[in-house]
Predict the structure.
Amino acid sequence: MRIDVLTIFPAMFDGFLGESLVAKGIEKGLMTVDVRDIRDFTENKHGKVDDAPFGGGAGMVMTPQPLADAIDSLRKDSPARTILLSPRGKPLTQMKARELSLEKRLILVCGRYEGVDERIARHWADEELSVGDFVLNGGEVAAMAVIEAVFRLLPGALGCGDSRREESFEEGLLEYPQYTRPENFRGHAVPQELLSGHHKQIREWRRNESIKKTAEMRPDLLEKRRGAAKISFSIALVHYPVAGKDGSEMVSSITTLDAHDFARLGKTYGANRAYMVTPVDEQRRLVERIIKHWREDDSLRRIDGRKSLAVEVLSTAVSVDEVMADAMGRSKRVRLLATSAGKIPGAVQPGAWRATAAGRAAGEEEWIILFGTAYGLGKSLMARADCVLSPVEGAGEFNHLPVRCASAIILDRLFGRSEKPGEELI
Ligand SMILES: C[S@@+](CC[C@H](N)C(=O)[O-])C[C@H]1O[C@@H](n2cnc3c(N)ncnc32)[C@H](O)[C@@H]1O
């Protein structure tokens, strides 16, 4: 990953980039960070980067010219997601950091004074990010927070995948309390459960403490998890583009049983729609005939009335683009959640995805959960996904489940209720 930072105080980054794990990561080539002085891009010879605000008021505002030219020159050769650090931005969350860690390039723009001319935020930056509801003197410390949060998620950055997975926010919960030697420190003993050596007991204790800590410190996070049932989503069984044995993209053929099962899965877990996606007209017509049959055949309805309920959610689509266009008719924004049997860098656990997806305004956004037939979703589709879900795994290395089984497990993990009423999503 390459990160360019635009600042009027480049020296602030010397210590940050020269120490600790970030320095090691840069040395190992996991990330390059170039810090650039905004004053080098000014057209005036005094290197002036600020001016008085139109309409009057206290302080100075950063002028648009040096920032626009700096961003344009950095994006000349290849695109880069451009982020303006700003207290008015959307919050930097673990989910956002994960999303950014999948980018090839980032530009971080650090404001100063009373802020940055609004035209930079609107026409040059892709988004504004805030590191918290407080005002800093400048965006430099905020940019460092972004760099560090993103860096930790780069494959190979920490050297141990597990320490990342169990951290605060990864499952929408705060981390459990940690203790180290000595067992008794000035009269304060380590909880007995951690000394028991029973892995199951330790796991349960940690889980409970994690929930308790979150309830005490961040009840809003628990609310988000509970609100997960409100996530608006559809499911799509993709027959193109999917991977063939050699990884190249191909079209797979519809299995009629999939249409039945997909409709029932969608209906059970509350999907807006269940799409069978194929560009082959004849195959779509086949599914449409099945849908028509269920809808119109009274004898079937008499045998099993539920079939006619499930079929309500089933649709066909030529492509994922058509699915997205259909969903746009229901929501302001459509996002793609990809599933895969493989271990994809940056893939997220179901709980982490749920916690973040549930935090967004209901009715604003619809997720399309993509399931691939054949050897899984095609590369071109994986590359378009906003988020990838970590694979379902069992006892060993082999995890090539039939798509009907994998989709059932995944939907249950994302939206299913547990045996304990009231604790469904904890
Ligand atoms: C003093 S602040 C400007 C505050 C602005 N007048 C306001 O009230 O929103 C100067 C710069 O610091 C950075 N900054 C301050 N607080 C921040 C925060 N919480 N998150 C990200 N950036 C921040 C931004 O780049 C901002 O342009």
